[in-house]
Sequence to fold (491 residues):
Amino acid sequence: MSQPFDLLVRDTLVLDGTGSPGVRRDVAVLRDRIARVADSGSLTPAARALIDGRRLALAPGFIDVHTHDDFALLLHPEMGFKVLGGVTTCIVGNCGMGAAPFRQPPLFALLLHLEGLPGTWEGYAGYSERLEDEPPSVNVGFLVGHGSIRAGAMGGAKRAPNTAEMDAMRALLREGLEAGALGYSSGLLYEPGRNAATDELVELARELVPFSGLYATHMRDESTRLLDSVREAIEIGERAGVPVQISHHKASGRDAWGLVRESIRVIDDARLRGVDVHTDQYPYTAGSTVLSAVLNGAFGRFSGAPVVIASSPARPDREGRSIADIASELGLPELEGAQRIADDDPATTIVGHSMCEEDVQTVMRHSVTMIGSDGIPTLGRKPHPRLWGTFARILGRYVRELGVLRLEEAVHRMTGLPAKKFGLEDRGVVREGALADLVLFDPAVVVDRGTFEEPEVPPIGVTHVLVNGTFVVRDGAHTGARPGRVLHRSR
Ligand SMILES: [Zn+2]
Fold:
């Protein structure tokens, strides 16, 4: 008699993460791995836990490839805003903003986490150790932030690095890669990353090669110069010989709408030349960022609809109000009003409806688009609802209601595709021997519920979530378990 399983899910619709259509199976878990995947009804119910899977679909846990949870993982280790939506792995360190070097608390952490910072650490090795000592409920893969290492090497200098500074940046990057980083990210809209020329980014990307790391980028311009930005991202990957991940692919601002049809063509051409380039997306027409970061000329892209304050810890009375409204109260034109609001509280974050629905769907249909929430974890305020709802919104609104993607394709973009791109071995797939990061959801019901007025609401229809074989969500409720691990790239 074989040993009993820890969990048996009977007769469920298995979406295995490869993009193949769902098939009904029994799935058994033993310790942290998937022990058996077999015909429905063929596995004996000798298991410590039994789930009737008839109304549910079972998929690999969702991989959120674009997050800013570097500090939230330690401050809010249960990560309810992720696991209650089926996310089992977060990739942190995006948009050039990483968790090290950490002599000076990184600006973004100070802006997002008024509740305080979780102490300090030495380098990415120190960060990784902290996560191992105080594990969160989700797995974590981290990227080195270009803006962070640039600030570490040369402060906020608005010029090219000299040789010594370039060496210092390279050393900081290598430290991160040796500590297990999956690659490095840039934030070329933001200070200090926007001061980097293409050559600097190529030089650094060459350091990724022996580690099989990838280059992820928040590009210089996601508006009318979108195509130049995409070409720059591809050039960096091509010259350095590394894979590229274009973050939150979109055309921002009315004048740029429609450009994604051309950026997709640029990406497809590069792929035909053999460049390994992918993108990610959050499924909303509204973006969100730090207000002060877009006052250098990018504010105008938020055209057509009100720009609303998402969080302002120094002026909480302004949260949820539009900038136009506050500006007129101050007797100022909108742009000057925005400047005053940023001066009053540099930590102000905004939500603005800068994209169009047609572009969102065009990008989503592109076969190389993965899903990344880009959620900003300013808990207790008015974060963009993508923080909680991204994955359920894809499954509910874009798969079930609008038919933009087939269910198995959507799951592939959230699981198998990112696992392969980021080198996460034995994840993102439902097969015997793979690690048991699993989500069980009701495809007839699953959908996001958060709104811009009330964003902090978990989705419905996500029933059970396992991370490394342990329930973190059971019957829709967080179990309190924190079985997350730090994931390194398989070479
Ligand atoms: Zn970004």
Remarks:
- The first strand starts at residue 5 and ends at 14.
- The pocket of zinc ion is lined by residues 95, 218, 247-248 (CB under 6 Å).
- The two ends are 38 Å apart (CA to CA).
- The chain has a mean pLDDT of 94.
